Amino acid sequence: MMKFLWFGKTEKKIEPSPLEDLQSRLQATTNEMNDLIDVLRDILLLRNDWKRFIVYNLLAGIIRGVGAALGSTLIFAIILYIVTQVIDLDLPLISEWLSDLITMVEQKRGIVR
Questions:
Q1: Do 84 and 91 touch, CB atoms closer than 8 A?
Q2: Which of 20, 51, 73, 77 could pair covalently with 16 via S-S, beta carbons 3.0-4.6 A apart?
Q3: Are residues 57 and 99 in the same domain?
Q4: Which keywords does this Swiss-Prot/TrEMBL entry list (predicted)?
């Protein structure tokens, strides 16, 4: 395979031999296996220390809960903003239906306009 350089010069790319290719792939696989062994060792150490296991899962649950609450709040705020913009457009059927829906929700919650 030819590799182009500046000023019209070309450089020949030397292809690795099948043995070198196999060695590099084997080395990459060995590195991945070592990483996997390290992760499994950490998991087993965590499972054996029950106090650390409980604290880890408690913190993970709290973080998931806060993330879900913030995410759903953001999504609902965006939806509410879009709905108010549609109502302001004063489209005949959609804005009337949405304003009736908002009125019903506010009456159900005890907020009357």
A1: no
A2: 20
A3: yes
A4: Membrane, Transmembrane, Transmembrane helix
